[in-house]
């Protein structure tokens, strides 16, 4: 297992990487770092830290914009030939944007907790790229009663885009937490 923590301001080097895109809130950094430390991969794994997490006196220096974040990530991964992405919540939106721009470079994407209830119509349309992927390239993990997007709603949403994609249901879970490390490791291995 190899895990490094380069700054999000510099390039990620090498031929293969697993990028971890957390949820919107800075509290998701803990989820991302925990996942990074427990990934069973033989290449670089990196947590991307959102620009709006940077603060001065508790005031965010940047406003969250998924398109700007996707562009920044593209610069970081420009030397990668293949990319895995594990994302949570708003990170799944940025993953979809990245996939639409660089689909040929993606090996696998694992989308945890698609925040369907918080997405605008425009942002929901970014997920249409999932209609162009094969079933083993993208996995969705959704808690049954996730308050930001229930399994039932997300399964219907994804099924309308690509009925071949499988949405993994986490029975009875009513949170937006996605600490499913062993399952994520299995999905990454294919």
Task: Set out the fold topology.
Layout: E1 16-21, H1 28-38, E2 44-47, E3 55-56, E4 59-60, H2 66-76, E5 82-88, H3 90-102, E6 106-112, H4 121-125, E7 138-143, H5 151-161, E8 167-170, H6 181-189
Parallel strand pairs: 1-2, 1-5, 5-6, 6-7, 7-8
Antiparallel strand pairs: 3-4
CATH fold assignment: Rossmann fold
Q: Report the top-level CATH class.
A: Alpha Beta
Assembly level: single chain
Could you report the average pLDDT, rounded to the nearest whole number? 90
The side-by-side strand order for the widest beta sheet comes to: 2-1-5-6-7-8
Which range does the strand content fall in? 15-25%
Radius of gyration (CA) equals 15 Å
Total strands: the figure is: 8
Number of helices: 6
CATH homology-level superfamily: Alpha/Beta hydrolase fold, catalytic domain
The helical percent reads: 25-40%
Q: Termini, distance in Å?
A: 17 Å
Task: Give a short overview.
The chain is α/β, with parallel strands linked by helices.
Report what the structure shows.
This protein is an alpha/beta fold and 190 residues long. It has one domain (16-189): Rossmann fold, CATH 3.40.50.1820. 32% of the residues lie in helices and 20% in strands. It contains 6 helices and 8 strands. The strands form 2 sheets. It has a 6-stranded parallel sheet, with helices on both faces. The protein has a two-stranded antiparallel ribbon with strand order 3-4. Strand 3 (55-56) and strand 4 (59-60) form a beta hairpin. The longest helix is centred in the middle third of the chain and has 13 residues, at 90-102. It starts with 15 loop residues before the first strand and ends with a helix. The relative contact order is 0.16.
